[in-house]
Amino acid sequence: MQKNQGLTSAEAAKKKKEYGANTLAEQPRPHPLRILIGQFSDVMVLILLAAAVISWMLGEYADAVTIAVIVVLNALLGFIQEFRTEQTLLALRSMTAPAAHVRRDGKLCTIPAEEVVPDDVIVLETGDCVPADALILQCAQLSAEESILTGESAAVEKHAHTDEDAKPDNAIGRKDVLYAGTAVTAGTAEAVVIATGLSTQMGQISQLLSDIETEETPLQKRLAELGKTVALICLAVCGLVFAAGVLRGEPVFDMLMTGITIAIAAIPEGLPATVTIALALAVRRMLARNALVNKLHAVETLGCASVICSDKTGTITENKMTVCRIQTPDAGYEITGTGWQRSGRIITAGKQCAGHMLSALHPLLRCAVLCNHAALRAAGDAWEIQGDPTEAALLVAAAKCSVSADQFSRYQMLSEIPFDSDTRSMTVFYRTENGSLALRKGAADVILRACAYYRTHGTDQPLTPQKRAEFACLADHMAEDALRVLAFAEQAQQQDTAQPAQMVFLGFMGMMDPPREQAKRAISDCTRAGIRVVMLTGDHIKTASAIAKQAGIPHAEHAVTGAELDAMSDAELAACIDRYAVFARVTPAHKLRLVRAFRANGHIAAMTGDGVNDAPAVKEADIGVAMGKNGTDVTRQAADVVLLDDRFDTMVSAVREGRTVYANIRKFVRYLLACNIGEVLTMFAGILMGLPMVLLPTQILLVNLMTDGLPAIALGLEPP
């Protein structure tokens, strides 16, 4: 392989045979027959099957066939629901099947991502999804969004591998490596693949799923206990009736038949079907609200949830950087609207800014839109972005102030000093009608050091040490509010293209990944319902606490980091976990450990997430919830519920539905048991009184199914 020419087709085929396809370890998809057989594993269903067999052996063929039909219809209902869900998940997966641009036989071609092999040279540009872990050979202004692995929404700057870098590997956090599943947010790159499939960082996380065993839901456990209790009652009743009859001198065989008949009367034949119908109808209602349930019993588990462990990025927050504050040397401004919404207001001193008041922002906004590589395109009531999300956020804020790059079409760009990790700034040089102009944006401390003046009320004043310290303090206060702060400056009549050093400070822009409005309302609903919401994120602890506070999570100031968790034993963690509402700088292993700690404390834990880093914890939780739009296929496979609209409030609606179903199931279980106990006592009393059999087996079955079963279904459909 030549360095940048890639592999030949023959070499690629050989490597695919050696390393396998570039796919992750999938959870085995259940065969339809296995799904069907699984419907017969419930204890109550097994008791009904045993009753059918005994009835057949005793010559009660009509009873045996009736019970068998009930069991089969119940199984078919559950099978249809779970099979449909499986097909929906497969459809979601096919919609997100990625492709890769690689060099093969010296030519650039597009192939399915699963065909990528080690040593392939891949070509990437803005917006591409990285198909495998790859070492960067060359790049230009490259950054990638790695929240799928790390949980942090800010893009990470990347650079080409050099001799000064560590020996090439795919360890997490390297700036010279692009990771599978992440997205290129800016720039272009050529990279050589160093790991595929299970060897990638994404693959290693997905392998954690194989160590997690699936447990029964709370309702399944209770119904199993009920089934065992019913079985014991049946045996006890049968033995008691048999003994009482024999002691009274009745024929042994007749008493055995009578005992079995009464035992069958104790079995609530309609219970499994009624539970399945109630759950299936709930699943349909939840699907109408964009919550896809993988398994029927996951519905009631949602209703039992006592704590929701939520990922921050993309679940509670928009996963879209948004400028929410502008600070000039003269005044501070708040900007409403989140994400890429076109609507928004500019507020200062508690009042909405009129058009003429926005002129004070014009120099800063001009710098923001011209010192920028992103682009916007109108799409209804929102913008479609191209380029780095941070730069796009600047354009969205400027657009809310009616400022865009089109207004400066006469400006001619001369040159640029790109953003890099050393200078922590970006500078562009323009020729304007009035001469030359240098515009610069970057970290607050860097920009302030490069400024000799500041603009106030339209005039430039010397930037004294006192003023510089005052502005630095303003930037620190913005950072303490979990804002990412960028500073802006300009210099007119710049004669060369060297980095300017006598610039005019224009102000700051503060941006963040804001909480979804729907998530705020949903968290409030959870709190009122007695459900705890805690946040798990890879972000800095101050940022995480500030976001949690804005989202309305109670006790958001009680936060702990992953490093502090590492210092605790499992027992210590279980003892103190209920004190905290925010867990910051956590890894996938931390998330898994936290879910286990909550469960060890007796909580029914729900875990929401979208990235691969969330998948192990999503599977470990009593109820795992994945995002359908932006979630990874690994996480969707691990989840019990998939939110098709990626909204936190959809899950809260599902929890509400689950609580309703669980309450209704408890109602009709009590009703059915009360009815059956009445039948058993009636028949037992008749035997003790020497009366003939009060009810025949067929009559008992009809009473259980029609008189008891239909009212039980009505109870299962009661609204909240």
- The helix content is 40-55%
Q: Structural class of the secondary elements?
A: alpha+beta
Main sheet attributes: strand count, strand direction, barrel closure: 11 strands, mixed
Provide mean pLDDT, rounded. 82
Give the CATH architecture of one domain.
3-Layer(aba) Sandwich
Which blocks of ≥5 consecutive residues have pLDDT under 50? none
CATH topology of one domain: Calcium-transporting ATPase, cytoplasmic domain N
Spatial separation of the terminal alpha carbons: 66 Å
Q: Indicate the proportion of strand residues.
A: 15-25%
Number of strands: 28
The radius of gyration over CA amounts to 33 Å
Tell me the overall shape.
Answer: elongated
Q: Output the CATH homologous superfamily of one domain.
A: Calcium-transporting ATPase, cytoplasmic domain N
Give the number of helices. Answer: 24
Which CATH C-level class of one domain is it? Alpha Beta
